[in-house]
Design a protein that fits this description.
The chain is an alpha/beta fold. The chain has 2 domains: 161 residues, D-Maltodextrin-Binding Protein, domain 2; 114 residues, D-Maltodextrin-Binding Protein, domain 2, CATH 3.40.190. 46% of the residues lie in helices and 18% in strands. The strands form 2 sheets. It has a 6-stranded mixed β-sheet with strand order 2-1-3-10-4-11. A 5-stranded mixed β-sheet has the order 7-6-8-5-9, sandwiched between helices. α8 crosses α13. The longest helix is centred in the N-terminal third of the chain and has 32 residues. The relative contact order is 0.17. The N terminus is likely disordered.
Length: 330
């Protein structure tokens, strides 16, 4: 009897353990199926009001409606997006913390900053969201009327031209250095703390030109600055009559500013797939395209595979450029 009782108790314990495992698996499956069950946080590495922040808030609103959950934007500015990237890397891999940033956080920052992480290894690309072209804009009294003319003027006046940028290592600075490299010209770099003051000094004639990320539109239209060309592989929908740099014979100088979303490594694939699906729907909304246009941007959804390729290609280009031009950040 004692032996039978022990055997019965053992069977009962085994059955109970099996049931507990089954319930745990079922619960985990249900929890995953119910994602998101709480608010989602999107971390942005720049101050409120800038292009990245506004774009993130537009996307957050659309995702909030799609998921039926609050999606908040949490600004963590610093080190060109590295502070925000580090925050997301340290967060739990549950899909409730995501990063929205320019692609430069992965493609340029590792060559510009010393950090104890590498976004390409420590973050998972989710999707591409949109892009802004960069516009070659010159002071109002500048002799040239297009990019070809600027190149000719620079060659005829060696060492005399200067260009403004939003700061060392920023995408407008990298675009200007890529232009100089591909066109074979020289101009002195004058860095500013942001795109707005850089543009202001070009308008005032303190610098000859700037690669503008889209804030110059009203000043271009009123003639306060000259638009000489578009640093993209296609014409801008906002200025369809203005040729690209490539169309003007300056090949290889295209550098759009792309924006995307990343997650911490380890987030379940089905969660990432759902985020990607909903992003595609959100980015297809006409109202969103209009709000992006107010930023000088275009929605440009890319799935994870296409986004990874973009990051790899841009990373190779910018790492080589930064090394060749000896670009550094103080």
């Amino acid at each position: 009897m004692d032996h039978l009782s022990i055997s019965a108790r053992r069977r009962a314990l085994v059955q109970a353990a099996a049931m507990a495992c089954l319930l745990a698996a079922t619960g985990a499956s249900q929890a995953q199926g119910q994602w998101p069950a709480k608010p989602i946080r999107i971390v942005v590495g720049f101050a409120p009001g800038g292009t990245t922040d506004v774009m993130a808030r537009i996307v957050a609103q659309g995702l909030s409606e799609a998921f039926g959950q609050t999606v908040i934007v949490d600004n963590k500015p610093g080190a060109s997006g590295n502070v925000a990237a580090s925050e997301v890397i340290r967060s739990g891999p549950d899909g409730y913390t995501l990063l929205i940033a320019p692609t430069s956080v992965e493609t340029a920052n590792p060559s510009l900053f010393k950090a104890n992480f590498h976004p390409a290894k420590d973050l998972t690309p989710v999707a591409g969201l949109g892009r802004t072209a960069m516009y070659l804009v010159a002071r109002p009294g500048f002799a040239a009327t297009d990019a070809k003319g600027l190149v000719a003027h620079a060659r005829a006046n060696p060492g005399k031209l200067s260009y403004a940028s939003a700061g060392a290592g920023t995408p407008p600075h990298l675009a200007a250095e890529l232009f100089k490299q591909q066109a074979g010209v020289f101009a002195t770099h004058i860095p500013y703390r942001g795109a707005a003051p850089a543009l202001q000094d070009v308008m005032a004639g303190q610098c000859d030109y700037v690669f503008d990320p889209g804030i110059a539109f009203p000043h271009i239209r009123t003639g306060k600055v000259k638009l000489l060309g578009v640093a993209s592989n296609k014409r801008s929908p906002f200025f369809p009559d203005v040729p690209t740099l490539g169309e003007q014979g300056i090949q290889g100088a295209e550098l759009d500013i792309w924006f995307g979303m990343w997650a911490p490594n380890g987030v379940p694939a089905e969660v990432l797939a759902r985020v990607n699906r909903e992003l595609v729907k959100v980015l297809a909304q006409p109202a969103l395209a209009k709000r992006f246009a107010d930023l000088g941007a275009e929605p440009a959804p890319l799935d994870a595979t296409a986004f990874r390729k973009l990051l790899a290609d841009e990373g190779k280009l910018l790492a080589a450029l930064i090394k060749d031009r000896r670009i550094s950040v103080e």
